[in-house]
Amino acid sequence: MCFWIVFAERCVERLVQQQYSSSFTASSYYSALYTPSYGRFQGSGGWSPQTSDRLPWLQVNLSQRSKIIAISTQGTYNSNDWVTKYLFLYSDQGKNWKPFYQQGHNWTFAGNQDSDTEKRHLLWRPVLAQFVRFVAISWRRGHAVGLRVEVFGCPYDSEVSSFDGNSTLSYKFGNSQSTHTLRDSISFNFKTLETDGLLLHSEGKEGDYITVELERARLLFHINLGSSNVHLVNGETLVTLGSLLDDDHWHMVTIERYGPYVNLTLDGDVEHIRCNGNFDHLDLDSQIFFGGMVTGDKHRLKEKANFRGCLENIMYNNVSVSALARAKNLEIHTTGDVMFRCPDLLYHEIPFSPITFSSPNSYIQVPSYPSQSQFTLSFRFRSFDNSGMLLFSNFSDGVGSFEMGLSNGQINITFLFAPCCTGHNMSDGHWHSLQLTARMDTVIVTIDEDEGAAVRINSLTLRPFSGCPKRVRAYGCSSNLSTFHGCMQEIRVENRLVDLELVKRRRLGSYAEMLFNTCGIADRCTPNLCEHGGICIQTWDNFECDCHRTGYKGPTCHNSLYPESCHHYRLLGVRTSGNYTIDPDGSGSARPFVVYCTMTEDTAWTTVFHLQERDTKVTGSSLEKPFVGHIDYYNNTEEEIAAITLGAEYCEQKIAFSCYRSRLLNSPSGLPYAWWLGREAEKHFYWGDASPWVQRCSCGMHRGCSDPKYYCNCDADYKQWNADRGLLKYREHLPVTKVVIGDTNRTGSEARFHVGPLRCYGDGGSWNVASFVHGNYLSFPTFMPGPSLDISFYFKTTSSSGVFLENSGIVDFIRLELRSNREVALVFDVGDGQEQLLARSPVALDDDDWHWVQAEINVVFARLKLDELPWQRREAPPQSYVNLRFNKPLFVGAAEYRLQAFFGCIRGLKMNGEILDLEKKANETEGVNAGCVGHCEKPRVECQNGGRCIERYSTYTCDCNASAFDGPFCSKVVGGYFEPGTYIRYSFQSVVSAVAGTMANLMLPLIPGHNLTNEEIVFSFSTEQPPGVLLYVSSYTRDYMAVVIRHDGSLELRYRLGGSAYPYTRTIAKDNMADNKPHRVNITRRDREVYTQGWVAVAVLTHRLLTLAEIGVLDPDIQRFNTPGFTGCLAGFSFNGIVPIKAALRSDVNHTVNVSGTLLESNCGAPPVTLSLVSLEEDPWQVHPGETSVSNAKDYDCNLFSLSLLSLVFVALFLFLLLAFLLFLFLYYYRHKGSYLTNEAKPLEPSGSSQPAPPKEANLEKINEEPRSE
Fold this sequence. Notes:
Blueprint: H1 2-7, E1 13-14, E2 24-26, E3 57-74, E4 83-91, E5 98-99, E6 108-110, E7 119-139, E8 148-155, E9 160-164, E10 168-172, E11 179-181, E12 183-192, E13 197-203, E14 209-215, E15 218-224, E16 236-241, E17 251-258, E18 261-266, E19 269-274, E20 282-284, E21 287-290, E22 308-316, E23 319-320, H2 321-326, E24 332-335, E25 355-357, E26 363-365, E27 374-382, E28 388-394, E29 401-407, E30 410-415, E31 418-422, E32 432-439, E33 442-447, E34 450-457, E35 464-466, E36 486-493, E37 496-497, H3 500-504, E38 510-512, E39 514-516, E40 535-538, E41 543-546, E42 552-553, E43 559-560, H4 566-571, E44 578-582, E45 593-599, E46 604-608, E47 616-618, E48 627-630, H5 638-647, E49 650-660, E50 674-677, E51 683-684, E52 722-728, E53 738-741, E54 750-761, E55 769-772, E56 778-780, E57 789-797, E58 802-808, E59 813-820, E60 823-829, E61 835-840, E62 851-857, E63 861-866, E64 872-875, E65 890-892, E66 904-911, E67 914-915, H6 918-923, E68 928-930, E69 948-951, E70 956-959, E71 965-966, E72 972-973, E73 975-978, E74 983-987, ...
Antiparallel strand pairs: 1-8, 2-3, 3-7, 3-8, 4-5, 4-6, 4-7, 9-22, 10-21, 10-24, 11-20, 12-17, 12-22, 13-14, 13-21, 14-15, 15-16, 17-18, 18-19, 22-23, 25-36, 25-39, 26-35, 26-38, 27-32, 27-36, 28-29, 28-35, 29-30, 30-31, 32-33, 33-34, 36-37, 40-41, 42-43, 44-45, 45-46, 46-54, 47-54, 48-53, ...
Helix pairs in contact: 10-11
């Protein structure tokens, strides 16, 4: 991937399009209209092989070595023929081919889905080759192979040097005797057939060195920036990369170093290294060696063999060593026969021509010579399969058979049904030689030329096979072993090398589905994808992880077997205290360990002990040479202990300091004499029970120290024992890792300190929550998950879509999103196109309740889980991967560029066991709040009149169903005008009826037979025609409640309760209420007390029917007030949260409300609206400068006062001049206080009121005066 970034802009030429027709060859072609030359991309035809060609291939000669970064395919033009899957092979000389493996060791590429659409693949690393070959694996069912190809890249120039094992090349560093570098850059390419060899080496007199070598076909990188025996610093660093590098193909190595940090790249795989030791510079002597070293100069490398093969384009710190060597520069010194070309045989007598058994149907048959008395057969093989048949032959006289194969890594031989085995670890992927010799009645089998381990068996003449698939059973080949998967070469029969080129042309022996001149074997355990120490076991096309004794499970040993803390053990039902194994970071890097769990009724304490729990005595220390006490926890690292505190709700650790003339902190501003170190080696200068960052002890928090001038008891420096002790409770600083004491070097001074065990409880990570209310996201550093990634979190929302989180790279990305109100989607791309996995919920997810999401993706599968539903799983896509590679920040709450924003709350977000601190990041991010709070926490405008705030996170709404008001903020009163004979009957229903009815969202139903002992009644009315019944509540008995307007216009409340003979009557207002002005009534009864101007009564009644205005059958005492019926307005009526007028006016079909007569909606009965206090900044109706404004009540009062003065002027003309002068001064004074005229209507005042209405300015903000020019 890195190379694509570097070369994409300048290395994108079409390399096939410019080639001549002679550059195209193929395994076969169907006819003259489908020859290989028609395989040119964007051509008018296409290449097709013969129908009998079971493994067809198309080959292109690019005319020169090229760097290839991408490939594309098409089907035959305007046809139904195309390839759906293929292999891509490349070669330097067209003789030895290597398949290109995608990340994850998958060697197949996805082909086309139609004949003309281009399918392009960017190679995750560039390859160097002159010849390319496309091998069709599968094509459209029922049709022929159709293929057109293109290769993208650029010509590649090189300077080559070859080494025969006795030759070397060295580069001298100019005139200097040594180098002292902070930064180094080294790169070269190599190819070889050897498994071992020294590629590069240089060292210095101080012990520094750098070495690159091959060992067992793997690359080893050694570096030492300096070691110290005095300070016990070992700077040696060793890193191993790659495998199977003895394949006669070019491999690219790049080393980039800055200080102790090294990026080592082998064929696109990058290893990030932090060198051991404390040094930054590399000190080397005057030269660096390539290809090996002369024996006298090897020193520490005497046992290392020199390199045997070719090196190309050697660069050292921007110096082309290869170019200088070819130019015979004086800075280059060579020994032995260094050639500036790469020989074909690489110093081997036999050409490297391997064959690959690539499928279950692969086999090869070669002839034998049965007439001779002696038979010999030898070959070399390599495989990672533990089992597979290598050789099978029937005896010529038909009396038996001979079978040789791999079984559990050994060579198993079966002769006349007598089994025998030899060898060890034969399935390690390396080349092994096998020789079989049959003489008369004896068979001798020799492995890896070790004659001492030869096996002898009685024998007859053989006829050999290699592989025994079903299609050759007719030849008598039968075996219980599986088909061999791997490579073979140098097959000899009777000491004669079998010409595999003749076999390929079917002029010798037979074969099926073989790859010639290719060893297509991949080490699927390099790199090791098994985590946490799991053992990788591989086969031809897959790998498995042995997680035994690792404490983890899963296909890659990723998931922990143990709970995260004692709190989680308690949730599992454990109630017994004792030692338990926990894994605080789950799938993270910290390993499981044992802690002590203290189980109580309320919680579970996780306790971690250490080795220094006894008092530690300290003398003779000073600030220049302080005493450092290390706190070593039992079998735990600092990272593992820190994982406990990160996930806990509360932690504490006791710390005590006892002193005799030994000072502690000195003062809050002075230099401390003692301190302790916590997480990440951070210094802390506060002591137990003190607040962080204040540099005090417990006594200093309340000024109770032995000397009030100081903030610690020990700072008094008395000649007596004193102490400062307490609990450290700030969990972000725990655990204590070191204690530093620096004031015990005076005569008689002494100190002792004690640190207790770390104790934690609770699950703080699960309630680390952030709310997303303004379409923003939280940005975290790029997450580097490695081969596996697991994610878990909770969410709640009222939205139907939004992205929970997203992390992306150049190609790879992963996104978790709410797809709809019932679907959560895991969307990802690991290099072979976008994939998605859906989890569907049977209930709505936008219900503002918590829902749990879990997701996992690894090289084997991807899976997704929602709440307690089953896992949704999908196998890994065909192009698997090694590591998820992201290079952009992790976005939580929206996708990149704030797209598809999520509105709601997310809590407990964990990725690979790491708890993401959402609250801390939310406090730093605008538009995201810490905690699950939305707009209802502090709405810009409150929901009025009992309206309920409904959180929408992106906004909010007011639920007015239980309110007698309407509108966006429940501030619009709902009322009606009642003509004579109009009334509303409201029936209370049972619970069953209410659930089945349409009023379930408007009322809390009352069950008949239940006693109602509390009422809350609110309404307003206006009328000018007494008498009238405003409210009548009847019951199953003669009990009732009524509010009536008497004939004189007074307002009266009547109760008949408990079957009393006479109703209890209370006059609410004696004045005439029938004045056509709105009046507000509020009646509250709590058990035996009814509050209307302080009146108290006893009441218990049972309700069935609530009736407003005229109802038909009334109590005789009430009937006399119901003629001719109430005429006027009622508004804002609410009875115990039931709103009959609103129900009658807002519901189309309502079985609980019956309206008799004509009811017109009107707010004529509503009193003037009293506005709530809203700041000018938050008032949505605030008028800004330049707009028409509404005057406040203060301006209104000033206007009235001005009018009254003018009337007095007309009455008393003789005082006109004096009053005019006074009026001028008065108006001038009030103008400067901001008064101006208003057209606001005069408020209505109740008749007979002796109290003036309170001024409105008490309830409204002052409005600044507009400029005079306006």
